Amino acid sequence: MIVINELLKSSNWISGLQWLFFIFTNIVVIPITVGAAFELSPGTIVNMLQLSFIVTGLACIVQAFLGHKRAIMEGQSGLWWGIILTLCTTAVAQGMPLPILGGSLTVGIIITSILTFLIGITGLGPRIAKLFKPAVMGVFMFLFGCQLIGIFLKGMLGIPFGNQAAGAHIDVSISLLSIVIAIIVIIISVKAPTSFRRYGLLIGIIGGWIIYALIFKPENPVSEATSFGLELFPLGKPAWDIGIIITTVIAGLLNTANTFGALKGTESMYKVETTESEYRASFTITGIFTLIAGFFGLVPNSPYVSSIGFLSQTGIINRIPFVLGGSMFLVMGLIPPVGHFFSQLPLSIGSAALFVSYLLLLNSSLNFFKQVEFNTVNIYRSAVPLFVGVVVMTLPASYFVTIPNVIRPVLSSGLLVGIILALLLENLIKWDSYGIEDKEKPSAIVDKND
């Protein structure tokens, strides 16, 4: 009866629409870019987009009722997305066929789904969480931001994804429009009233899309009659490239940082500490939906850390509006014309909006680093993984051809290299005991002179 009364409140439906816009903005670009990177047919991309809507909406509802039971978006992981697009770029440069890459990713994602499910049912989540200390999370957020911002910036410049990027050049006209859209979204995010500011990304996408259509008049490559259909392994039938599989599994294990960040970050809002049972339920559900992603070529799921910002900005921590937003998103996926329509979104416009959104990862990174007491000695704990990770990101894929195939995909990913270094350095060395003497020296000198 209480639930029915909540469903009848117009305020909950309005708040649900805000959740719908938030979920939509974060998800719509992901399957389109992955489909473009793997050179899939327009019809396949439409199906992947619709299925992404359905799976994401369903995942949000299930987590709200059976998982962690909080208003935290469960959607296609940005870390997974960044790794997949990076692997596309490096694999193409190193001569690996896209179907082999896609098939090996599929196997790796299925293995990861089983591991994530086991982490859930065995209750290992809290123990793994202890490894992801503030210094590690600071490195993770910063490098995660660098990788995604790099992807979005290329999209803004009109550079295509995957194999099509070979020999590509900056499209000046598309770049100028994308930069203008990004600037407008930033101005809205900074200057607009709070009630209006939360719609900045949506305004950027819709407004930019309209302007793009008026200026460039893009052709419609998909028939309006396109119907929704399930296609197993659209990225490629299961294959066994051990290097790609190892990289995928490592990425999946590191993706658990999103669950820890999202749940820990919302504890103060809900005035509770995350229990072992909540970790169990959250990981178990994420594992199930990761398995679905492996079979149908989707980017695997995780709780969205960016939900913390949305909750802080709107104050909508009640589950009912969140469930309504997820339900509306699910229904959008069940209507074929909706999937067809949104598949036409220009990648440059979507990239411009998300470019602005993910700039905020710098703030998340700095908040974690504030919890660490750095000095001239223990700064190495974060300096090494940060600088090495950023430099590896800038190296051309051709530089890694001399590395054995088994470890090449891992070592060519600046994000993975940086996070692995941060985990090792932070958990193998007691950094807080170093540099204390150096901090005491200035005061000692002053006393002596006195």
Characterise the protein shown here.
- The protein is mainly alpha-helical.
- The chain has helices spanning 2-7, 10-27, 29-37, 42-66, 78-93, 98-122, 125-129, 134-156, 172-191, 194-197, 200-216, 242-254, 256-265, 267-270, 276-296, 307-314, 319-334, 336-342, 347-358, 361-369, 380-394, 408-411, 414-428, 436-449; strands at residues 74-76, 301-303.
- 70% of the residues lie in helices and 1% in strands.
- The model is unreliable at 443-450 (pLDDT under 50).
- It contains 24 helices and two strands.
- Helix 8 packs antiparallel against helix 19 and helix 8 (134-156) packs parallel to helix 21.
- A two-stranded antiparallel ribbon has the order 1-2.
- It has one domain (2-219, 235-430).
| Nearest-integer average pLDDT | 87
Summarize the biggest pleated sheet.
Answer: 2 strands, antiparallel
- Give the helix proportion (percent range): over 70%
Rg of Cα set: 22 Å
Shape estimate: globular
Q: What fraction of the residues are assigned to beta strands by DSSP?
A: under 5%
Encode the helix/strand succession as letters.
Answer: HHHHEHHHHHHHHHHHEHHHHHHHHH
Number of strands: 2
State the gist of this model.
70% of the residues lie in helices and 1% in strands. The chain is an all-alpha fold and 450 residues long. It has a two-stranded antiparallel ribbon with strand order 1-2.
Task: Write the SSE topology.
Layout: H1 2-7, H2 10-27, H3 29-37, H4 42-66, E1 74-76, H5 78-93, H6 98-122, H7 125-129, H8 134-156, H9 172-191, H10 194-197, H11 200-216, H12 242-254, H13 256-265, H14 267-270, H15 276-296, E2 301-303, H16 307-314, H17 319-334, H18 336-342, H19 347-358, H20 361-369, H21 380-394, H22 408-411, H23 414-428, H24 436-449
Antiparallel strand pairs: 1-2
